[in-house]
Design goal:
Blueprint: E1 2-12, H1 19-22, E2 25-35, E3 41-48, H2 59-64, H3 69-72, H4 78-89, E4 93-97, H5 101-112, E5 122-126, H6 127-135, H7 145-151, H8 163-176, E6 187-189, E7 201-204, E8 208-216, H9 219-224, H10 226-229, E9 241-249, E10 252-259, E11 263-273, E12 279-287, H11 290-318
Parallel strand pairs: 1-4, 4-5
Antiparallel strand pairs: 1-2, 2-3, 5-6, 7-8, 8-12, 9-10, 10-11, 11-12
Length: about 325
């Protein structure tokens, strides 16, 4: 099996552009590096895509890129480039990306041009997350590719924000990361999310379990669903004894339970937007230590006090 390290550059339309409703982010460059099953670099791919909808670079995109519309006009249509890229990838491979956006925007463009969907559930390696987990000790740290390359002392021979170059640098970071537990670090792309209970996804890992739900009309309805709100041990599946009930921590829900055999475990629920103003849920239950448990307790108390202060302030203002 090969590892296809993918990187894209894309353009976006202005907010008042009609085309933004059809395709908000249009791919303008595809870059990739191919690694064999021993993580040796065996080939590279790069091609400029001539934009059809957003022909003028958005100011924010222009500031990032090292080229302009003159080069874009020399590109080829997305349909032609993607077919060539698809053939270059071969048959037995898995995608690797720096972050989650490249696969999302690739599939948005594929849908716009009526290409067949990628297989579902689509497993891939998020190198940004793996790097943060293995090198920084926290998978929630979103370090830039440039910073990771600098920290790992990888020679820089070409400019960043060029898809072919960025794919190469991502591949170099990937090569330097320990691959001993790589099979347990797979992510699931959720661009094509489950739409019914039969399509729901549960993925078992060594130290956590991940569940991707069907769609719900809103967050309240989702949390009322027993499968969403249940807390079962990631290892043995037994129901956990609640230690901290579900509470809102900014953009996600958190709780803690204990399995008498496998210890303390933290549950996290993220709500993701779906079509027709619906949402779906990504729930992760993972093993934690006592220090993490104490941090969650402190965080819960901080949020409770903050809410009480806001409520008290509202009452004072009303009186």
């Amino acid at each position: 099996m090969n590892y296809i390290v993918l990187d894209l550059e894309w353009n976006q339309g202005r907010k008042d552009s009609k085309n933004s409703k059809h395709l908000p982010f249009e791919v303008i460059e595809i870059g990739a590096a191919k690694l064999d099953d021993n993580f040796n670099l065996v080939d590279q791919y790069g091609s400029i895509v001539k934009p059809r909808l957003h022909r003028h670079l958005h100011p924010a995109i222009r500031d990032l890129l090292n080229y302009d519309e003159t080069l874009l006009r020399t590109g080829r249509p997305f349909e032609e480039v993607y077919k060539e890229f698809e053939n270059w990838c071969g048959e037995d491979y898995i995608f690797c990306t720096w972050g989650t956006l490249d696969l999302i925007h690739l599939q948005q463009n594929m849908d716009y041009y009526f290409f067949d969907q990628l297989p579902s559930p689509l497993k891939y390696y998020n190198i940004q997350e793996i790097y943060a987990k293995t090198k920084l000790g926290d998978s929630n740290i979103h370090l830039s590719l440039e910073k990771a390359v600098e920290k790992m002392k990888i020679p820089v021979d070409g400019q960043f924000h060029c898809a072919k170059n960025d794919a190469y640098y991502t591949a170099k970071v990937f090569q330097k990361i320990s691959h001993r537990k790589l099979s347990d670090m797979c992510s699931i792309d959720c661009y094509h999310y489950p739409t019914c209970e039969e399509e729901e996804i549960t993925v078992q890992h060594n130290n956590y379990v991940e569940y991707i739900s069907r769609t719900f009309p809103d967050k309240i309805t989702a949390m009322e669903d027993s499968k969403v709100s249940s807390m079962n041990c990631y290892k043995c599946g037994r129901k956990l004894k609640p230690k901290i009930k579900w509470f809102s921590n900014n953009s996600y829900q958190v709780c803690v339970g204990r399995c008498w055999t496998h210890g303390l475990q933290c549950g996290k629920i993220k709500f993701k937007p779906a079509k027709y103003d619906e949402i779906f849920v990504i729930k992760r239950i993972e093993k934690i230590g006592k220090k993490d448990f104490e941090k969650i307790k402190v965080r819960q108390k901080q949020l409770q006090l903050r809410r009480l202060e806001k409520r008290h302030q509202k009452q004072q203002n009303a009186s």
